[in-house]
Amino acid sequence: MSFDAGLKAHLATGATSVCHAWRIARGDGVVMGFTDHDRELRFDGVVFRADSGLSALALQQGTGLSVDNTEAVGALSDGAIRETDIEAGRFDGAELTAWLVNWAAVDERQVVFRGTLGEIRRAGGAFRAELRGLTEALNRPAGRVYQKPCPAVLGDGACKVDLSQPGYVAERALEAVEDGQKFTFDALAGFDFGWFQRGRLTVLSGAAAGLVGTVKRDRFLEGGRVVELWEPLRAPIVAGDIVRLEAGCDKRFETCRLKFDNVLNFRGFPDIPGEDWQMALPVRSGETSGGSRR
Question: Most CB contacts within 10 A, which of 6, 118, 166, 238?
């Protein structure tokens, strides 16, 4: 990546007017800008606030694949980064871009870091967030696993199921909520028992809007429909909030065929031998049908 010519010439003068700017893009679409300058900056359609108290430790980046050793440090405030949003997980994995900027001419700027937010720690009205560079993704194991279940995520590019089709999605208001984890609906007509199990629940309104949970159980109970998540949502959610339920998939070939009519895109290997095949013994009878021998 070449260095910006204008900024390079400015730095060569020896009398500089530079600062840092950060852009955070959360998974729910919210974009926030911060700077350590004493006045706000504007570029790329983002306002970079000067009153956020956000700063960053010196960047230590190398050519290896380890997590870049740097942190973002800032104060928690209602107008900038709120503790409730961190607790709810809204900043988990958020994309972050950092620039070195000539505040007197913001067109003279250079990206010095691009990555995501990692572990976030809170204490004493402040937070410290680990910054993870783009090479972090290269540390993850990759490759195809040969197994009976389908490894694709329902609705992704490999699966290709269109979840917007009728019968796969339901949007309803909650009748009751228990511990932010169990949700009761008065009626979900047209959906079989367990239809949403292993699916997703997305909150569309209220204080928890934008949060997503994975469905553990979907069952009928005392005349209503109860949907339970594996983990409670980390923000207040109350009766009357609107949620979106998406059908779940247990990754089996039969489910792909009968529930989603998507056999052509099934990514598993349903006929692969199971672990009991390792215990098979050779015989002379020539019978290889797998049936019992008498």
Answer: 118
